[in-house]
Design goal:
With about 230 residues, the chain is an alpha/beta fold. Helix content is about 40%, strand content about 15%. InterPro entries: NAD(P)-bd_dom_sf, Sc_DH/Rdtase_CS, SDR_fam.
């Protein structure tokens, strides 16, 4: 990863922070993009662009272009930004479906489209999306979230075919991630079986590395110790 310029969306979240820390530790240069505000002072190897609404095409494009300009290149895009909801179909709100689609599909679409011109110049461009194991077979209450993450899966496959030979495009499909929010939401769960952010970061950064040059179009389950 040494010297590679990587954009991480959702970089101020529980998973994004770990992926950014691990990428920097491996010698990458990291641009973090997030809807939340950032107070980090920019350095040659690390910048954070806060207050960005990635569901907005213009804002997403401006952020990606700013990151590429800061580093003079772009080698990887890791799309972590997204959202989750638990809501039944029958008595739920149709607006929830639109919100999940915007947060999970459109954020990845907008940043990917903006990054493609930069990544194709890299010679080793990488896009890694975050899908969901629960989108392969949705449980009760998971309809809006699972449908949107299934869209991320199809986006990944389509982009991989479109960019074959130029940029690799893959997705990781985690089960439940061991975060403070998930522990609070599921206090009786057996967290020993959950996947940790560090474990997931290792898989993501493998896909972003030169070692994964032959892997594209993969939907890779990361399901902890089930």
């Amino acid at each position: 990863m040494h010297g590679k310029a990587i954009v991480i969306t959702g970089a101020l979240g529980a998973l994004g922070k770990v992926v950014a820390t691990e990428a920097l530790a491996r010698g990458a240069r990291v641009a973090g993009i997030d809807h939340a505000a950032s107070t980090l002072a920019a350095t040659a190897d690390h910048i954070e662009l806060g207050g960005v609404d990635l569901t907005d095409t213009a804002q997403a494009t401006a952020a990606i272009d700013k990151a590429a300009a800061h580093f003079g290149r772009l080698d990887g895009l890791i799309n972590i930004a997204g959202g989750f909801t638990f809501e039944a179909v029958g008595d739920g709100d149709p607006a929830t479906w639109q919100r999940m689609y915007a947060m999970n599909v459109m954020t990845a679409l907008n940043t990917s489209r903006a990054a493609i011109p930069h990544l194709t110049k890299s010679g080793a461009g990488r896009i890694i999306n975050i899908g969901a194991l629960g989108a392969l077979q949705a449980a009760s209450g998971m309809g809006p979230y699972a449908a949107s993450k299934a869209g991320v899966h199809r986006l990944t496959e389509s982009l991989a075919a479109e960019l074959k030979g130029k940029v690799t495009v893959n997705a990781v499909l985690p089960s439940i991630i061991d975060t403070a929010a998930n522990r609070a939401a599921m206090p009786k769960a057996d967290i020993s079986k959950w996947v940790t952010p560090k474990e997931l970061a290792d898989v993501i950064l493998f896909l972003a590395s030169d070692a994964a040059s032959a892997v594209t179009g993969a939907l890779l389950p990361v399901n902890g110790r089930v």
